[in-house]
Structures
1.
Amino acid sequence: MSGPGPTERPVPADAAPEQRAADIQPLTVDPGASPDAPAPIAPGGMFGVTGSGDTTGFGRLKRQPWEVPGAERPFGGYFDELVDALQAAYPDFDAAVSKIAVDRGELTLHVRREHLLGIAAALRNGAALRFELCSSVSGVDYLGLDPERLHSVYHLTSMTYRRRIRLEVAVPAEDPHVPSLTALYPTADWQERETYDLFGIVYDGHPALTRIMMPDDWDGHPQRKDYPLGGIPVQYKGATIPPPDERRRYS
Amino acid sequence: MSAPTDGPYAPSRPTTEGRVYNLTGGDFDAVIDDDTLSDQRIVLNMGPQHPSTHGVLRLVLELEGETVTDARVVVGYLHTGIEKNVEFRNWTQATSFLTRADYLSPFFNETVYSMSVERLLGIEAPPRAQLIRVLMMEMNRLSSHWVWLATGGMELGALTAMTNGFRARERCLDVFEMITGLRMNHQYVRPGGVAQDLPDDYDDTIRGWIKEMRTELVGVDKLLRGQPIWVNRLKDVGWIGVEGCIALGITGPLLRAAGLPWDLRKTEPYLGYETFDFEVPTDDRGDSWSRFVVRVAEMWESLKIVEQVLDRLEPGPTMVDDPKIAWPAKLSIGPDGLGNSLEHVQHIMGGSMEALIHHFKLVTEGFRVPAGQVYTTVESPRGELGAHVVSDGGTRPYRVHFREPSFINLQGTATMSIGGMVADVIASVASIDPVMGGCDR
């Protein structure tokens, strides 16, 4: 605190004599204190607390960005065999796959978008792979966590070998183009339309990429993280409760 | 009557209300005279508010006479933003939204989501909770198939099938109400286990229910299986083969009716399904009749599983023994419905300050789930129900996506309908058994 020191506070007339303003110790540190004075005790560390020490949940803790680390061989289970077969079926494997992640018993290949069609075709057609079924196409918006924030996520199923694999393609929001899988997996048709509708990922080569969930003239892509949920405050017994996306966040 | 034409524009005449144009005439008569098919080609808009389209489904059919030459399906009329909404609720609250997605199979929605959260947390529900989940899901499979039979029958004009189907489904809902307190939208299966234990008299009630269901199923056979109108409306209608199913992602009874015995309960067992003795019914015709046969056979198989669960149920916890995840209060049914038990309220309000803080934190803030993503599947009455759940380490889901079999299977409508009669479109859509709440989410 800069300035001429603690300000004089008015003393109430009925104040007890021992609480006069002149007796109150100033809380500011004197800048001209001698260097051999004892250093002030650093805050924190009480009761063995680490981190911010906030256990209330109200402190708006900042979480660290998270990322699943790339996996090293052996991946475990059938994953090694699968990746070997895919490497044999798709010679450009090292250029196509930026990361292999194994987490919670699931194999994820992070694929560069130029190679998505090639990888998917190899997975579908390879005799040792046989991923006949494209179970699911969806999107995830990693706003603030990944510069290529829009992820198009594919879950493929091999009915022959009873295996599953996840492909993930990351694109930036400024250039949200991903090749369409409809020629390989016709089931991707509506699912890509849904992902386009809700995330704004543009699937190049899709026969009719139009909105499917929202009305045709809707503005914006609602599942993106920077798209608000919307809602109006609700009055309840005289008090006003804000809409869900404006309430206090604990995480 | 053709009015004299005046250039390229329709003839008009002034009136006291303004100029009135006569839109017949012009060169339109010449156009329709040339086209011999035009008096037969119609574009027919069915729905979204049509009693025969299984909910708010819109079909745009191009017809030549009675034959369908093109069919488009328009969905999205029941989009409620469930996947967006759960991103603003904590992990436990999300079940109350997701149970409403496919409102005819709520236990499947809740279970697949809870299993995903448990995999992210690295925990497993206790054995009794897993058995209760199996019990509820198999009873739910029956109630869902009853609605399929009821609505499908109604759409084909078999009104007794409708009344019988809804009567049988009411019996299922009665059992759900006894166990969960609610007939639909239960929020009974939660991350970590189930909301509360079964009531004391569950065994007798459910065994009585099984008897009722057997009687009703025999009634279906007596009423419909040999009924010529029912047979002729379904046989060779809405055909789709195994290749078509897999290309279009169609799973569940449709795929099994085409001949592939693909049932996730057998192929990728979860919740101990590998230990139950049941068959996967299949048929080889791939038409609406096969789907009828397969679904009715599945109901018999589900009853077998329910009986085995009842034989196996042993006392034990129904929620993980982790006070940082399990809901702090035991729920109980009071005179005004389901709520916190009186003992718990007494404990936190009068007994223990720490318990009150714990209750407050867990109920308002919720628990944290380690960052990561999983994709979990169950075999719902309509096919592979998958949940892609992403956590960023917080107290709310970062992203929940449901791979809804209704949504995916409806893509087969055009394949099943084109080339057939317009009346068969109804039978085909009914045999897909889409639930628009799940399709549009």
2.
Amino acid sequence: MYRNAEASGSPMSSNDVGRMTRLAGTPSREPLLSARGVTKTYRTGTHEVAALRGVDLDVRAGELVMVMGPSGNGKTTLLNCLSGLDDIDAGTVTVDGDDLFAMSDADRTRRRAERMGFVFQAFNLIPVLSAAENVELPLLVTGVAPKLARERAREMLSRVGLVDRADHRPGELSGGEQQRVTVARALVAEPALVWADEPTGALDSHTAGEIVELLHEVHAAGQTLVVVTHDEALGRSGQRLVQVRDGLVVGDGDPMVDELLVAAVAVTS
Amino acid sequence: MTAVAVLAGLAVFLLAPLAVAAVRQRTLVAMAVRNIRRRPAEAVLVVAGALLGTAIITSAFVVGDVIEGSFADVARTRYGPVDITLTPAEGADLDEVTAAVEAAQIDAIDGLLAATAATATLEAPQRDAAVPQVSVVEFDLAAARDFGSDPRITGVADLRVLATDGIIVNERTAGRLGVQAGDTLRLHAYDSNVDLEVSHVVAEVGLAGYGGAIVAPGTLAALAEQAAVVATPPRDQLLVSLDGGVFDTRELSDAAVADLRAAAADLPGVEVEAPKARVLDDAQAEGAGLTEVFSTIGSFSVLAGILLLVNLFVMFAEERKTELGMLRAVGFTRRRLTRAFAIEAAVYAIVAAAAGAVVGIGIGWLVAVVAGPIFGAADQGSGYPLVIEPASLAIGASTGLVISLVTIWATSLRIARLNIIRAIRDLPEPKVARVRTRTLVLGAVGTLVGAAAGFAGYLGDNAIALCLGVPLAAFSAAPLLRRLLPERTARLVTAGTVLTWGLAVYPLFGDVMGAADMTVFVVQGVVLTAGAVSLAASLDRVWTFAIERLGRGGRGLAPRLGIAYPLARRFRTSMLLGMFSLVIFTVTITTSFSAAIDGNTDATVDQVAAGFDVLLDTNAANPVDVEALAARPDVAAVAGLVRGAANFEAVHLDGPRSWPITGFDSDLLERGTPGLFRRDETYASDADVYRAVLDDPTLAIVPENFLVAGVDVPVLDVGDTFTVIEPGSGQSRELTIAGLGEADWLGNGALVSRELTAALFGAPQIVARFYLAVADGADADAVATAVNAAFLAQGADARTFTTLGAEGVRELLGFMALLQGFLGLGLLVGIAGLGVVMVRAVRERRHEIGMLRAMGFRTGIVRAAMLSEAGLIAVQGTVIGAALGLITTRQLLLGSDSFGDAGMPFIVPWGGLILILALPLAASLAATAWPASRAAAIRPAVALRTAD
């Protein structure tokens, strides 16, 4: 289905896609993920940096949450801590009602494998594996039979428009293609929640547009996504915009409402 | 010293540009130092990996030095001031000899001492112990103290007087008898005996080692006068000391011998010998031979070390790729970039060379201590002095340094060719679709050179050129093949050709290959390994298929990840596989040879024994009466042998060399024929050869290692001639080799007719060695024990051929085990290398490991993937090496004529093979356990966030 959108030949702007898909995902009332009072401090020798200072955040199924904020203010740390990639110093993070940090590392790892997918700015594909082999990894780790995993990986690559590049290694793919592979890898196990950290950060504007479009299509298909980004256009194309500053959530709402408010203030002033 | 100078020159040549760059551009030095300090643990690992090659080279030289030192120590313990002996013919007057020498006024001589020596049996009745044959000497103690320029080296400087009923024994003899001062010893000689009181037990030094015991002048003569048996009489000798101490008289010896021969020319039958010079020369030859053996065997380990170095520096460069790309971007020229990288690597190389030399001393000494008893060094010398020639250390360290520096330069030059953008963005190098014209031209030249070398090797009987020519041509032709065939097919064709050639060259060209030395064995091993490893690295689809098949049912995720990196990085994988394969190849060959030797023991004993059961040696000064032996009810047959030592000359020798010679008669052939290793084709059977020797005193049967020092390769073959010098007259007789015997366990030396020994040693001939056949139903061991007890006074030393065979095989197997142990060092290179490579792999793949963990890969899978990777490489390398080793051993044993007409059985050493396969795997997994745990412990967020 994602392939169809790309194949239309008239790529929409990210805002167009955002407006269209804003209505597509219908968030449920129960939070898929709930964070309360999450704090995280980095210590380097005697130097301490409070990266998160008591963050509260809920993510509901079907939401497309954009996280924005200045560099070094805790966006990536927020993603890492809420996804269980990094430890937290205080607070709780519950996924499907279970406290992520009350689990053992093995259980937390299993929960990530079963319920989460990841897209990173640096792609982080395994360079010695082909695109299909990279995509099938999350399936294999959850015990899917290799043959079935390969079929589903190819299917997923087909959805992101890369089935003809399935046997190529990352070094043989362009940046945009590599990021599409990472998206396919993040989605292949049908996770409840996909985390994307600066997914367009390493791409040129045209390719970045294609990836944004792909993410919106994914969301439109019902996928829950939390996207950390610097990209203003991408940030405002989601259903919900969480703004982070100095380790705190300073804004959380509908970016369209924000835009309207800004416009109203501008008109009235 | 020439080798040291050449190596030092090379090292300076390679280091000088770096030193100049370091002086001119301090930034480069600062970068190097800070990089080393930034990762001290990894710096230690690199140095540890790099020092192994130096350690192996150094240790080979140290083995030679220590063994040489141990053998040379005999000059101190058994000769001291005794450099030359003059032995007049029986009945001649020693005073005349002394007068002639004194009259000659030879400058180099600083002392003369008259002595008398004989072999006797010493019995300690109170201790119920006996030593069958001990050299007993007589001389005037007062004169002995002043013999030579240094009383301390005489060993008798503190002894004042010896009573006529007294005896001085050295510590070795006292230890064997368990006696001390005051005890009584019974001396048996010339069918008589005398009880003597031990007056002193002295250190085995100088004159106190020249004889195992010293008795008062006249004691031996008194016994000999009463003799009613035909026996070797006491030998009067004039002992000569040359200017200097123990070891510094060698240079004077040859000239002094010539002068003494001239001085004694008018006195008939005076033998002039230089025993100390012979000891020192033999020690040197033994040491040099062992150095060569261990250097050659060690070259496999050194090659493995080179592969490790290449791998380390290639990984090192890839890890620094982004950094190096940035340096190019900010304006570093290729030249400066090369030096920036090479300076840091050179620091590692210098430290590794120095540390490797020190480690090599320890390894070498350990090997020498284990090797010593095998070569008898411990029996003769006083231990294993840690004698190390400065040149050995210099050669070891500088060879290691040069190898490292060449590797560093080659790697640095390759790195400097990086594409700046690809380096900065850490992108892989694109595949070159079309082979460059320059590469094609070079490939064509290489192909022609290889083909020409192979052809020239065949025509000129040069095994190395023959062996290397085809592989050189095949590898050089690879770029041309890539023009014609798909890349994978081209690789497979090249690798297959090299492997096939390595396997076929021996069967096809056995005449050229079989005649070559051990170096060819190394070359063939390298060719085989290169072919097999290239083939294995190209069979990626096969390995993937195998892993997928093995991993069905969800078990194969870790192995699949584990195999992905080795398959994708063929160069690195080939280096690692090569390391393992080379070493396992040689370990397998030595193990298979050991199995063949062990399995052939009974057959070898049968060949040597010729139908007899027991070998009996007796004291030539008090021999057993052959009639008395034959009359024993437990003895069915007796063959007596006349055994002595004579000087021989041959084309490969610089001068006369003393070696045993034994005269036999038809009795030896009564029950069979001692088997021959090879015989002249004019004889129909081995028995015909023996019969021909009996009939013709110009023929001889010699052992394969006749007139060869230490472990040097045999030089004499059937049909060759050599010369034996008559001890009395000094006349030469030319002998022709009619047959070659097996290794000379029994020390018979040259087997000749009794007619010849009579001519050499005079009549009557003293039969002191016997082959005994035991009566039906008698136990050979029991007969040997009974004979020893019955003929104690005659110095009887009887042992069964089975025991002697077992001892001989044990010594040989001991040496093979030692070689295996030495090769184990190479395995250490492989295992340590794998560990180091995996440590660096963890760093290199940090982001990817972080991503796997983020995706939900449990720590166990990450750990198992790393272990699988190491295990797969170890298994592949081990299996390749073991398979090639078995095939080569089979070819050598069954196809080569180096193992005689009878050949040797090829036995697959299953027990050893299992160890060979299991140990490296277990050790590799153990070496990878730490990096694998580190990889598993990486926190995903940290790995994804940071560069290192």
